[in-house]
Design a protein that fits this description.
Elements: H1 2-32, H2 42-47, H3 53-66, H4 74-84, E1 117-119, H5 122-128, H6 135-144, E2 148-150, H7 153-166, E3 182-186, H8 193-206, E4 210-214, E5 227-228, E6 235-236, H9 238-256, E7 267-268, E8 283-284, H10 292-301, H11 306-318, E9 325-330, E10 338-346, E11 349-354, H12 359-364, E12 372-376, E13 398-400, H13 406-418, H14 429-439, H15 443-449
Parallel strand pairs: 3-12, 3-13, 4-9, 9-12
Antiparallel strand pairs: 1-2, 5-6, 7-8, 10-11
C-alpha cells in the first residue's frame, strides 16, 4: 500500500515538473513574439496530447529538447561558415556598414571602428596572454566559431587613457582629457570588464610595455599551503607565490633580462611548501649585476624565497624607468574580502583571514602610488557587494563599465547572424531589439537568447 502511494506521488511530481518547464518555455517564446509557419510549437503539441501520464512526461522531455534544436549541427554549421568565408557580401553590419574593421591591430583602432569586430589570431592571442584568456572571451569564441571581438568605445577610452600617460598629445593642454594612472573597472555581471582588461594587456604588450597581468586574482586567496610569518605578522602562501612568478615570466622574460635589480636589501626567507624552514639561514642577497629575470628565477627555484621575491618584485617594478610598466589585475574585488584561509582561535573556533593579511595581496593591492594600475571587479566570483569607498583606492579611480548600448547590441546581433547562430528568415530588427531589452544588454544572455528566434 505504501509503495503504491509513493509511486503515485512520484508520477504526480514528475508531471507537475514537466508542465512547469513547458509553461516556462511558452512564457519565453511569447516574450520574444516567436512564430513558426511550418511547424507547431512544442507547447501546442504537448497540450493536444491525451495520452497517459508516462507518455506526457516523455513528450515533455522531447519538447524541452526541441528548444535547443534551433542551433545547426555543429559540424554542418562549421562547414557552412567555412564556405561563407568566400562570400564577403555576408560581412554586413547594421545599416549596411562593414561588420569587421580593416585595422590590423588594437593599436590602430580609432573611434570610427567602434561597433565593428576585429579579427584576432588565436595562436598569437594565446602567446601574448600566456597567463590565460578570460572565460567570457573563450565562451564567445567557442559559440560564435570565430576568434573576433567587438570594438567598444569603452575599451578605446581605456586604452587611450593609458596611451596619453606614456605619450602625451601635442594639442593644447586645456583640450586634453584628464588621465588616470589608477583605474578600477566596476559594473554589472557580464558587461565585458575582463575582456576589456585582456584586450588592454594585449595592446600594451604589443606596444612593448612590461605588464604584470593577473587574470585570476581569486587564486591568490584560495588553495595551497599557508602559514603566519613571525617576522612580518602576515600570512605567506609560497605555492601561489611560485605560480605568480611563473606566470609573470612567461611573456616578460625578454624584458626582465634587460632590467637590473635596484634594491640591494636582503630577501627574507620563509617556510617552504612542505619542507619547513631553512636551518640557520633567514635571508639571501642577489649578486651584483643581477637582473630582474635572475630575481624571478630565484623565487621559482627556491620555495623558501618565493613570497619574499614576489614582494620584492613589486618594489623593483615601481623603479623601472626604461619602459612603461602596467599592473593589470582581474577579479580585484577578491582582495577586499575574506580569503579561504582560517586561523585557529580556540579549540573549537577559527578566525577567517582577510585578504589584506596575505603578504602577496598586501604588496600589490594598494593603488595609492604613482604607478599605472588597472583593476577589474569580477562579480561572477560572488564575493558580495563592497562599499563604494575602498581602502587604498583613490575615490576618482572607480569607473563604471557599461553593458551593451543599443548600437553595440545591433552590431552583436548582426555578427551572430553572420556566424549562423540564428536563421536569417527569423532575424529582424524587431526581434533582435526584443532580445536586447529582455537581456538588458547582458552579453552572455544575448548570446544565449539569439538562437531562440523563430
Amino acid at each position: 500500500m505504501f509503495r503504491s502511494i509513493l509511486r503515485a506521488a512520484t508520477i504526480g511530481f514528475e508531471c507537475h515538473y514537466q508542465l512547469h518547464r513547458l509553461n516556462a518555455a511558452a512564457s519565453l517564446q511569447s516574450s520574444l513574439n516567436y512564430s513558426s509557419k511550418n511547424s507547431k510549437s512544442a507547447v501546442t503539441k504537448a497540450n493536444k496530447k491525451t495520452k497517459s501520464k508516462d507518455a506526457k512526461a516523455d513528450d515533455a522531455s522531447s519538447a524541452a529538447s526541441d528548444d535547443f534544436d534551433s542551433r545547426l549541427d555543429e559540424g554542418a554549421r562549421a562547414r557552412a561558415l567555412a564556405l561563407d568565408e568566400n562570400d564577403p557580401s555576408l560581412d554586413v553590419g547594421p545599416d549596411g556598414r562593414p561588420l569587421f574593421t580593416s585595422s590590423p591591430s588594437l593599436s590602430e583602432l580609432t573611434r570610427k571602428d567602434a561597433c565593428t569586430y576585429i579579427k584576432l589570431n588565436m595562436d598569437k592571442l594565446k602567446a601574448v596572454l600566456p597567463e590565460g584568456l578570460p572565460v567570457g572571451m573563450m565562451k564567445e569564441f567557442e559559440e560564435s566559431m570565430r576568434s573576433a571581438l567587438l570594438v567598444r568605445q569603452s575599451f578605446l577610452d581605456l586604452r587611450d587613457n593609458f596611451r596619453r600617460i606614456v605619450d602625451p598629445p601635442s594639442w593644447p593642454s586645456d583640450k586634453v582629457p584628464e588621465v588616470r594612472k589608477q583605474v578600477l573597472l566596476d559594473g554589472p555581471v557580464s558587461c565585458g570588464k575582463s575582456i576589456a582588461l585582456a584586450m588592454l594587456v594585449n595592446w600594451a604588450r604589443d606596444e612593448g610595455w612590461l605588464v604584470f597581468y593577473v587574470p585570476k586574482g581569486r587564486e591568490w586567496t584560495h588553495g595551497g599551503f599557508y602559514y603566519k610569518n613571525p617576522h612580518t605578522g602576515l600570512w605567506d602562501t609560497p605555492v601561489q607565490a611560485e605560480n605568480i612568478l611563473k606566470d609573470f615570466r612567461m611573456w616578460n622574460e625578454g624584458h626582465l633580462k634587460k632590467l637590473l635589480c635596484q634594491v640591494d636589501d636582503p630577501i627574507p626567507l620563509g617556510e617552504g611548501a612542505g619542507v619547513g624552514w631553512m636551518k640557520e639561514v633567514d635571508s639571501m642577497t642577489m649578486p651584483v649585476g643581477a637582473t630582474l629575470d635572475d630575481l624571478v628565477k630565484t623565487g621559482i627555484d627556491h620555495t623558501h624565497a618565493a613570497v619574499g621575491v614576489v614582494v620584492r618584485l613589486r618594489k623593483e617594478l615601481s623603479l623601472v624607468k626604461d619602459m612603461p610598466v602596467l599592473f593589470a589585475l582581474d577579479q580585484f574585488n577578491n582582495w577586499f574580502t575574506f580569503s579561504e584561509y582560517e586561523e585557529p582561535v580556540t579549540f573549537h573556533s577559527c578566525r577567517q583571514i582577510h585578504a589584506r593579511e596575505l603578504s602577496t595581496v598586501n604588496a600589490y593591492r594598494s593603488m595609492m602610488h604613482d604607478d599605472m594600475m588597472v583593476g577589474a571587479f569580477s562579480h561572477s566570483t560572488a564575493v558580495g557587494k563592497l562599499r563604494k569607498e575602498l581602502p587604498d583606492v583613490p575615490a576618482e579611480a572607480r569607473v563604471n563599465f557599461p553593458r551593451y548600448s543599443l548600437d553595440e547590441a545591433s552590431a552583436v546581433c548582426h555578427y551572430y547572424l553572420r556566424q549562423r547562430l540564428v536563421h536569417r528568415e527569423a532575424f529582424s530588427e524587431e526581434n533582435w531589439k526584443k532580445v536586447y531589452y529582455l537581456a538588458n544588454g547582458n552579453g552572455s544572455e544575448m548570446r544565449w537568447l539569439i538562437p531562440l528566434m523563430r
